[in-house]
Specification:
Radius of gyration: 24 Å
Distance between the termini: 91 Å
Helix content: 55-70%
Order of helices and strands: HHEEHHHHHHHHHHHHHHHHHHEHEEEEEE
Oligomer: single chain
Strand order of the largest sheet: 4-3-5-9-6
Strand content: 5-15%
Length: about 550
């Protein structure tokens, strides 16, 4: 009997190892085509900070950047802690900061996050692999993994912190609790939202043990770290950067003044669109589920249509975007309802954790930021994947069919890869445009200025073109380059004549941030959906000569 039990345990461990190896290999294979992706959105800020760290390791925010209409200290432009940039600096100091090097470096956090999802899903449901795949192949995780920002690294720390906390508490192994507390601290130094793990783990512990536990004292470690970070940054930069970031989010949110109904519906739309696998949720309950889903779509769709405005200039895309927004918002609301329903049915510590994990992320992303971004939705992705599979298992009375699950995952994978490809070409347009202008103008006599930020700024500044800021010393004869995908547009101090215009084709019918599509993956200012099936126009770059 003992021999049989040992054999079963060894077989289980072997299967577990095989699953992990296959998931890691699948993650690398899926992300490999994107290793040369151009830097985009806030990637340059993390890169510039990493380069500053290489020069001055103890002064990460000590540089000036032109990230707005004026020159700013890095600690003003960069509202994130520095650990992710320290990670980049470790690779960059040895291998350089080229795209492939940095993207290979960020394969490691992506693999860690995928494996962390697997070990968490193994605790919460009987089918951890589909839950893991529904996390990997969801637009918010996959696209975030093709950037060099801090978000996927946060998720990796987040998942393993929860895992080691649960393991440590269940086995009474205090070193695991210490390791978990250190991972919570690392998550907080990666992105300030990581500190929300402290109340999340506190709540789970109290409900799981039905009393206060001495192990909770380990959760004071990340709190003390934040206090130390506040004191250190105040000494170095005259501002406590954690508090400053929180006040910044609040002040801008108050200034923008978006109605709460619009915020809520947009948050639901981003949640549903980012977690595309949730759109099959109604199918899990058969014909009854489809009827309920259709009724919910009609109600939520009507409200979304009535209360969420679309940006101007959509043209023929307006109807398609509205319909997709209705569908995404319904999916997002269903995810929130699923988290509530799972807790109502089970009423245990694990279901409470999934509920607080999902709702907490949604509330922060929707109501505590000046705009909603997919990146702030990202931390809930593993919880949503787990909740979907738990619902599947319940719908199939604990015997889910493998074929049905794989069809479901395959559908999410196809859509996610298509959206990620569109995002790749949107980012690449800026790199291609900047390289064209470098070849044409870098050796000329005219001073070359440009507008816009993100990846375009990074590639233009690499060949010494100058970002246009307030009171820039522009003179007659200078050149100004203006992309169609623009930000912080400033009026010209002199008349200008259009000299030429170049274009770069995008993926025809899918967009994540392209103008005229209402796709706002990186900011809901662009539109109320994170991505869209919509007609795209080529990226344009206009060259003006100052008169």
């Amino acid at each position: 009997m003992a021999l049989r039990e040992n054999s079963e345990e060894n077989l289980g461990a072997m299967n577990d190892r095989h699953c992990k190896l296959l998931l890691a290999a699948l993650t690398v294979a899926a992300l490999a085509p994107f290793l040369n992706k151009a830097y985009d959105i806030d990637d340059p800020l993390f890169l510039w900070m990493a380069q500053q760290i290489v020069r001055h390791p103890l002064d990460p925010y000590g540089s000036l950047v032109h990230w707005a209409s004026v020159a700013q200290p890095m600690w003003v432009a960069m509202q994130n802690p520095p650990l992710s940039s320290y990670y980049m600096a470790a690779f960059g100091s040895l291998l350089g900061f080229d795209e492939v090097v940095m993207h290979v470096a960020f394969l490691l956090p992506a693999i860690a996050a995928v494996l962390g999802t697997f070990v968490m899903a193994r605790r919460f449901c009987e089918s951890p692999v589909p839950a893991t795949l529904l996390t990997l192949f969801t637009p918010v995780f996959f696209i975030s993994a093709t950037h060099v920002m801090c978000d996927v690294l946060l998720v990796a720390f987040w998942l393993w912190a929860i895992h080691f906390w649960m393991e440590g508490l269940d086995s009474k192994r205090w070193p695991l609790l210490l390791l978990s507390a250190l991972l919570v601290s690392a998550a907080t130094l990666t992105k300030y939202f990581g500190l929300s793990l402290v109340p999340l783990l506190f709540a789970w512990t109290v409900v799981h043990r039905r009393k206060l536990n001495l192990g909770l004292l380990y959760l004071t470690i990340p709190l003390l770290l934040v206090v130390a970070f506040e004191l250190l940054t105040t000494r170095l930069y005259g501002q406590p950067l954690f508090s400053s970031a929180m006040l910044y989010l609040r002040s801008v949110a108050v200034e923008v003044r978006i109605p709460l109904t619009t915020k809520f519906l947009t948050g639901c739309s981003f949640t549903g669109g980012c977690m595309i696998g949730a759109l099959g949720l109604a199918c899990l309950r058969g014909a009854k589920g489809l009827l309920i889903g259709a009724a919910l779509l009609l109600v939520v769709g009507f409200i979304f249509w009535s209360y969420v405005p679309l940006p101007a200039g959509l043209g023929g895309n307006a109807l398609a975007v509205r319909l997709q927004g209705c569908l995404f918002a319904t999916g997002g609301l269903a995810i929130l309802g699923l988290a509530l329903w799972d807790f109502r049915r089970r009423r245990d510590a694990d279901s409470l954790l999934l509920l607080l994990w999902t709702l907490g992320t949604f509330v922060f992303a929707t109501f505590f930021n000046w705009s909603i971004t997919a990146r702030t939705i990202l931390p809930m992705a593993p919880a949503v994947g787990i909740l979907l599979v738990r619902q599947w298992e319940r719908g199939r009375e604990g015997k889910p069919g493998s074929a049905g699950k794989m069809v479901w995952v395959a559908g999410a994978m196809v859509i996610t890869m298509l959206v990620a490809t569109a995002d790749y070409y949107e980012a690449d347009a800026s790199r291609v445009g900047a390289r064209y202008f470098e070849k044409r103008y870098s050796s000329g006599n005219a001073c070359v200025w440009f507008q816009s930020h993100w990846g375009f700024q990074f590639y233009m500044q690499r060949w010494k073109a100058k970002p246009m800021i307030q009171n820039a010393p522009i003179r007659p004869g200078d050149l100004l380059i203006v992309p169609s995908n623009n930000a912080d547009v400033l009026p010209l101090p002199h008349p200008a004549v259009l000299r030429r215009e170049i274009t770069r084709s995008l993926v025809p019918l899918v967009a994540t941030f392209a103008p005229g599509t209402a796709a706002g993956f990186y900011s809901s200012v662009r539109g109320p959906v994170p991505w869209a099936f919509a007609r795209t126009t080529p990226a344009r770059f206009a060259v003006y000569k100052i008169r």
